[in-house]
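HUMAN: Mind sharing a backbone?

ASSISTANT:
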Amino acid sequence: MNLFTYQLKQAFLSLKNKPGFVFSVVSTMGITLGALLCVLTLAYVMLLKPLPYPEQDKLYWVEHGLADNFGELRNSSFSYPGMIHFYEKQNVFSESALLCFGESLLASDPAQPLVNTTFVTPEFFSLTATPIALGRAFEKSENKDSNSPVALISYDTWQIEYNGSRDVLNEKITINDVSFKIIGVVAEHFIEPEIFTPGRKTQYWLPWDYNFKAKDYQDAWGNVLYELAYVGKLKEGYSQTQAEQKISPFLNDLWQENVISMAFYKDWTVSLKLKSLKSIIIGDNEQRMYLLLAAVLGLLVIAFANISNLFIARAIEQKRSLAINAAVGASKQQIFKSFYAESIVLMLASLTLALVITSLGFGLLQYYLAEFIPRVNELAINTFTLSAALCCLVILALIFSKLSSNVINYRALNSSLQSSGKGSGVQVSKKVRQALIISQVAVTTLLVFANLSLFNQSTSIINTPMKYNVEQVYTLDLSRSSLLKWNSDEVLSLLKEIENALLQLPEVSEVSQSNSPMNSNTANFTLLGQETIFSAELQDESGYNSFHLLEQPLLAGDWFSEEDIIMGRKVFVVNDVFAKQLAANGNAVGMKISMENEIDRENNAVMRTIVGVVAGVNLPNKAVAPAQAYWPIWKGSDNFLIKVKPQQNLSREQVVNTVKSVTHKFTLSSLERLSDVQANMLFTQYTTAITSGVLAIFTFLLAAIGLYGILSYSTQIRRFEIATRLAIGAKKHDIVKLIFFDNIKALFFGILVSGLLLVTLYLNFSELLINYLSMASIPPLILTLALISLTAFFACYFPLRQYINKPVIDSLKNSE
């Protein structure tokens, strides 16, 4: 141990004299290992780390599978009465909780912001062992049907809204017209299960009785609600399969009884499935995680090849000092240990940098991607991270040491000293050099092509113009008092007054009672007298003047009229893309179409007449304008589009005060500029573009450094040959061609290997990759091959310049 400590000290002193070598190794490995540790820890947290709840392996989310008459699963959410019945009658869970997720209006705040609320039964807090920082959680006496207006708040809400005051337990808040007494604060370290969406953090926990779905859906067996969730702890003695077999029949029979009068649900069935809580939280991110791991491992391969070249060059440089050590009795094992000591020092420095980068990576992931990646808020440098770092240190140090010692011919070291090194230069075999070039080119080509393809696709979608005005338009959603009847004259009168009041604001130029043009869902349509099914994006609730407000051109027919809205006429407006699907000449005005699932009281399909055709517009995350149908707004809708004058803005406070000046029976739910909605919808594309662009650049730079190192070394060991060829009359361009064509075979094989790897990946992950490999992939492929070829050419040429641009005699003198 004392000898190895001495060798570590000597290695440190030796490396101090080689700052360039140290910087190259530490920076390359530090950045690469930092990315690797970050992704490995993320994979561990997502895929392997148990959930932080007691008996987490017994916690299940119940899927309410709704299958149509063909047996196809159409929905996996509960109906409100179905969930209540299951909660009250089930006997397979020892404990279970009801949850309803949503955004609610905090009416007690003058700005009336929307806050994240989760309505739960008390069992939620025992199932998750929720720690309480102040006060208490819900008790059994506050269970369903108790109507106890109490609330828990999150730790962040406590700190931000109440400055961490302990008097918060004396405070009351008003949410959705109900006053709640704050009874507790959830602890800071509580990790909320991300059941609804990744990154969502509840600000207020409220009793189940006050959920916003209870009043309108308590008897609606035919309506399923995605905001509802059911979580339970399986009883001892029950397996997942046994529980499913027991719970499905009794709920299916009850559901059939309650929808028997609904022709739409004829021959539909309900089946209940149990899914582990962990699988629900992870969702469909497992495959993406493996792809990310593969990308980072690819970077590691490139970095490893680069560092291998540096260690080989370093070993050759140390040949004479090693020969002296061998001459005075150093064994082969002792020489290996000297290499190992140097590798340990370098890997320690690299891992120190790697841990810093890992920590920064965690922060970036938590700041930017918490809403997209589950459990990302649990990321921290933990035992797994440190264990993985230690394994990397030991393994890489051993590999680099072995590689360096294999370069050195121990038996030749003594003779090398005796001959002063002439004619006995240590060289890396041509096969090893060719293998390094092939591996670098193969991995680099694959990774650069993949990242450029992702970058190209993302930027193409981001840069696709919307074709209508989003910068000057706001979308406004109002909430109405529970005392108002949905379609009363009072409601219609108040909505008209609010619209007129908004028009009086100096910043406003137009107002339309209309839904956001970015809210759409796919629907199926059928022409009158035909069976062909057409699929299009249904733009729900468009106002009679919304097309003019959005500057969406009318191509044929007419827009909705105000009378169409008031009378509730059965009409549609379609875009030109959909019109050309319905009629070859695009003249769809006057055609009658029905929409799947829209039936009248006699269970007949409702036929709607197309009254106009408008220009197609692009939607966020769509590369081309989709087929669209526009449904007229319901006259009692509380959604508006507001267009402001150029260079003007609209604040939430302005709209709140404007609505209050008309009535207190309507409150502001949300106000967003359409350009902000568009940016939020494109966040994934922005993230993909930035990540893939950075990875492509980083991969290319690593590969360029590696290829330059290998080809530079190849040229260096042939300098005597090059000088000799020049001495006997070879021209400079002949030498350049010689070196380039000697290496082109390895480059070609590297590109061929990358092609084979790509085909293999496509065959195994075709469903995942089919959207990324198309004619649009040709430009990234050409760019990738061009970059690799240019890099290889310059890596061959620049090291050669020092030999072909100086007197031949100098090269001959300096050659061993």
User: Anything to note?
Assistant: The radius of gyration is 34 Å. The longest strand covers residues 93-105. Residues 332-368 form the longest helix (37 residues).
